[in-house]
Write a structure and sequence with these properties.
heterodimer, A: mainly alpha, ABC transporter involved in vitamin B12 uptake, BtuC, B: about 250 residues, Rossmann fold, 8 helices
């Protein structure tokens, strides 16, 4: 671990400083949105959104490299795919009550498959693993601005509409009866989830998104009595997991995304077991 | 007498299965009515029609002289708590404050908070205001949800199975709260428990696709038979018998 701290201090290793900043800043978005995803029980929807992000990245690479449309960045493709699939998935979950899981499962797989097909059609070789499992060490300054912007939007929106989101997550029907446009707030929440997922894909990758979105809130849920406390604890836990995971992965030459996930998963399971034993 | 709720020739079908057929109903102000009927008989559907959560296929519904959607903010609704997430991080006060939610208003005011505390006081839960909602017993949760419905000071209170999964004593307690509230508001309760509710309510509305209204004094075996299509025996809880039980033949 000591060589990790030395490496961070070394001005040649700016990527490490970026990665640590990214981890801390991103934790704000992850903790808040992850809390909503956990209490609203929509981690399955978040999974479908994250896999369709791959379709968007594939499309963007194809347009950019295959067809020469240079301004069509993979991150633009990812954002469009994420927001688009969030709206589709949200409307499906509102309207197709019995078939919800089937339709969402189909979207999940089709999104992923489209991404691979687009990449097949794109000249050149792409390492898929950084998309699938993330690589926080590839973070650029542009990504940092993106996450700062997203944090500001999420914190602002949640502070203003906290009670509305609380109502939609706890009891949608009652909230609707109080004159709140619950469909709007539900879709709004899913769009924010989609943007957060795009960010998560950069750090832990498509496959591991759900874990980092749900494990910190799940742990926070053991100790929080109120919704805002759960968010605060999730943000802190998420930052601790990302920083520690990054340190371990650097010291042991492991992939950063999976290290972060395994670390948080172990802590969660241990605490879960302790809770079951102590509060039986 | 003023009419709070008026249904005229209302029918509703779900996936071509008729749930309610040609229902007409008038509920006057300060009525204490109970909707009873078998499972799947359309009790909750009737409540949702009155709340405007679903629209009738035919017929008209008026609440306080308005469409159900417009009358919503003057109705207090207590759903069954069983479908709420039992791990949701919220205190009793957080849950009750939901009753003060308004469109285009973002934060709760001091007035909202004092209304919420009043409502919590009405159901006798003041000492639990800062307790986690999940730590409460079934009966306490029901009381908190009644307080949430009261928070907006409604003219009509609608309750869906307030006595589901609670013991007899809790049931008594809940209904004595409702009886007191009935001084100021119209109350409509959905229940599968005919025998108990009849002790408090003024009118029983029997729903099983069609609708029959009885004043409570008329509750007897024939009426139960009309609705449930079978003979039932009344169980008396007010005397003790041996562990083996006994029969009256």
């Amino acid at each position: 671990m000591i060589e990790f701290f030395q490496a961070v201090m070394d001005p040649d290793n700016q990527f490490l400083a970026y990665a640590l900043m990214m981890g801390g800043l991103a934790s704000i978005a992850f903790g808040i949105i992850g809390t909503f995803v956990t209490i609203k029980r929509i981690s399955y929807l978040a999974g479908a959104i994250s896999h369709s992000v791959f379709g968007g990245i594939g499309l963007a690479l194809y347009l950019q490299i295959g067809l020469g449309i240079t301004w069509f960045d993979p991150i633009l493709g990812a954002v469009l795919a994420a927001v688009g699939s969030a709206l589709v998935v949200g409307l499906v979950s509102i309207h197709a009550k019995e078939r919800e899981d089937t339709i969402i499962g189909a979207l999940w797989a089709v999104g992923m498959a489209c991404g691979i097909l687009f990449i097949d059609r794109t000249p050149g070789y792409f390492s898929l693993s950084s998309y699938l499992f993330g690589d926080i060490l590839l973070i650029s300054q542009k990504d940092l601005w993106f996450v700062i912007g997203l944090d500001l939007v999420i914190v602002g929106v949640v502070v203003i509409f906290f009670n509305q989101f609380f109502g939609v997550c706890f009891d949608t029907e009652f909230t609707l009866l109080r004159g709140i446009n619950t469909t709007f707030f539900y879709l709004f929440l899913l769009v924010l989830t989609a943007l957060t997922v795009v960010l998560l894909v950069r750090i832990v990758g498509i496959v591991l998104v759900i874990a980092l979105l749900t494990i910190p809130p799940a742990i926070a849920g053991f100790y929080a009595r109120r919704l805002w406390q759960m968010m605060l604890y999730s943000v802190l836990l998420c930052a601790v997991f990302t920083w520690t995971g990054l340190g371990i992965s650097y010291s042991l030459s492991l992939s950063s995304g999976p290290t972060i996930i395994v670390l948080s998963g172990i802590v969660y399971l241990v605490l879960l077991a302790l809770n079951k034993l102590v509060f039986k | 007498m003023e009419t709070d709720i008026r249904l005229k020739n209302v029918s509703f079908a779900y996936k071509k299965q008729p749930i309610l057929e040609n229902i007409s109903l008038i509920i006057p102000r300060k009525e204490f009515a109970c909707i009873v009927g078998p499972n799947g008989g359309g009790k909750t559907t009737l409540l949702k029609l009155i709340l405007g959560l679903i629209k009738p296929d035919t017929g008209q519904i008026q609440v306080l002289g308005m469409s159900p959607e417009k009358a919503r903010n003057r109705m207090g609704y207590m759903p069954q708590y069983a479908y709420l997430d039992m791990n949701f991080p919220a205190t009793v006060l957080d849950v009750v404050l939901m009753g003060c939610l308004k469109n285009n208003v973002f934060w709760f005011s001091a007035k909202d908070r004092s209304r919420a505390m009043d409502a919590i006081d009405t159901v006798g839960m003041t000492s639990f205001a800062q307790t986690g909602f999940n730590a409460l017993s079934g009966g306490q949760k029901q009381r908190v949800l009644i307080a949430r419905a009261l928070c907006s000071r409604p003219d009509i209170l609608l309750l869906d199975e307030p006595t589901a999964n609670v013991d007899h004593e809790t049931e008594e307690n809940l209904f004595s709260i409702l009886k007191a509230l009935n001084q100021n508001m119209t109350i409509l309760v959905v229940s599968h428990d005919l025998g108990f509710v009849s002790k408090y309510v003024k009118t029983v509305i029997c729903v099983n696709r069609r609708l029959v209204i009885h004043p409570t004094t008329d509750v007897d075996g024939t009426m139960i038979k009309d609705i449930y299509y079978g003979d039932l025996k009344m169980v008396r809880h007010d005397h003790r018998c041996s562990e083996e039980g006994h029969c009256h033949d």
